[in-house]
Amino acid sequence: MNLRCLSLVAAATLTAALLSSCTSGKNLPPLATAGPVDLQRYSGLWFEQFRLPNSFQNDEATAEARYTPQPDGSVRVVNTEVRPDGTRKTATGTATAVPGSRNSRLRVKFDGLAAIVPAAKEGNYWIIRLAPDYSAALVGTPDRKFLWLLSRDRNLTPARRNEYVQEARRQGFDTSRLLSRP
Where does the signal sequence lie (predicted)? Predict the structure, then answer.
């Protein structure tokens, strides 16, 4: 299977997984999100610090995400998985804010085969906690199956990471399963 085809399959899997995850978890209160998010400030390069395991990311890989605001108000998304051997896998797509969410909930649709899978009405990228200076963001899905901590720096201090782990736990995520960036 060539790299382009593999990337399309990965993007389709990611979209399907995120779409299926957007129903509220059983016996959990609604997932709280961050206050208003300025998508201009949110744009730029982010580094994954930790995540819950999922079927579309290699457990040993790390990820980078670049968000670029577009003139129509959407955000271009470029996710890059970096594997231990240095190989990279990239998926691109578009994020749009869910009306009434103050930009804290986004619908992300990836290009290629994944474009045929519609994004959930309530969004599949919820910004749960955002540092006031936009240096770190905790992102997840309302069913608590998917979770990422992103930061502007490649590495956060253990104390800072722990703040976000505690928030994720408080919000009902299974933090015992977190995969951390080396």
Answer: 1-25
Residues in the chain, how many?
182
Tokens of 100: 């009434």
Tokens encoding 53: 């395991």
Distance of CA 23 to the CA centre of its chain: 16
Report how far residue 156's alpha carbon sits from residue 179's, in angstroms, rounded to the nearest whole number: 15
**CA dihedral angle for residue 157, residue 51, residue 182, residue 5, rounded to 10 degrees:** -140
pLDDT digits (tens, 9 = 90+) for 92-135: 999 999 999 999 999 998 887 555 455 666 778 999 999 999 99
Homologous superfamily assigned to 3-180: Calycin beta-barrel core domain (2.40.128.20)
Evaluate whether 59 touches 181 at the Cβ level (below 8 Å): no
Q: Which residue has the tokens 């085969």?
A: 113
Beta bridge partners of 96: 107
What are the tokens at 144? 């608590």
How far, rounded to the nearest angstrom, does the alpha carbon of residue 57 sit from its chain's CA centroid?
12
| pTM, 2 dp | 0.82
